Amino acid sequence: MGGIGADLMSISCFKQQSSTIRPLNQIRLLSNALYLSQFFDFESLKDIASSSISKKEADYLLMISTLQIYGMERELLNPQRIETGLFMVLGAWTEGLHLLNHYAQTHQDETLMLRLGDQQICLEILETWLIKFEKNNEVKEILKALQPLKTKLFAIEIKTEKIGKPQKTYDMEGNETTYQQTQTTPIINSAQVDAIAEEVEKFRKRVFML
Predict the structure, then answer these.
(1) Closest by alpha carbon to 97, among 140, 24, 153, 13?
(2) Below-70 pLDDT ranges, the chain
(3) Is 164 left (phi over 0), alpha (psi -120 to 50) or beta?
């Protein structure tokens, strides 16, 4: 469901509303299987997919849908359901990374290529959460399958440089400390993008059982 959600975001960004019906039907089926259908108003979502509604109507429907998603997030933070939520996040990240690679490759877009470097942070956080559930055999397999992709992502060099002047601040007890703002820039080339894309495809097939 996380992966399909990422696809819907991409479809929305490129204003391809006519392509949303199939993924919406897939989400309907999955939400029923996961006992999450109460958090989706599918009639409203189908209206969003229609090119005939006004921008004001679309904005309102999107706001309602966002509130419904927040309700689903609260449900998935329940200790008995947190693994389901984690798998959804994993799916969304995996599909998002696949799409990021795809557009970076097809358009040779330097900005998108740089964003691949940011995925080191995302993967670190995701892996930290997965490790909490590694007693689950499926999670253990996913952690193992992630390693080749992690190796390629962490092969991206991250250049850190100081910007501006050192700033002074004070803690709760009044002690003075000095900090320096920094800026990070990934150093990446097209060969690395291709290598990451190859591993993303392998991991994506494993996660979504394609």
Answers:
(1) 153
(2) 7-25, 27, 34, 39-77, 79-80, 171, 210
(3) left
- Taking the domains of the chain in order of start, what are their residue ranges? 1-76, 79-157+187-210
CA distance 200 to 101: 8
Report the C-alpha gap between 202 and 208 in whole angstroms.
Answer: 10
Report the alpha-carbon distance of residue 70 to residue 83 in Å, rounded: 17
142 CB neighbour count, 10 Å cutoff: 22
CA distances from 52 to 17, 42, 57 (A): 10, 17, 10
What's this model's pTM, rounded to 2 decimal places?
A: 0.67
The predicted-structure confidence for 180-210, as pLDDT tens digits, reads as follows 777 778 888 889 999 999 999 999 999 887 5
Tokens of 31: 């939400």
- Residue by residue, DSSP assigns 127-143 as HHHHHTTTTSHHHHHHH
pLDDT given at position 118: 86
Which run of H or E residues covers position 185?
A: strand 182-187
d(CA 88, CA 81): 11
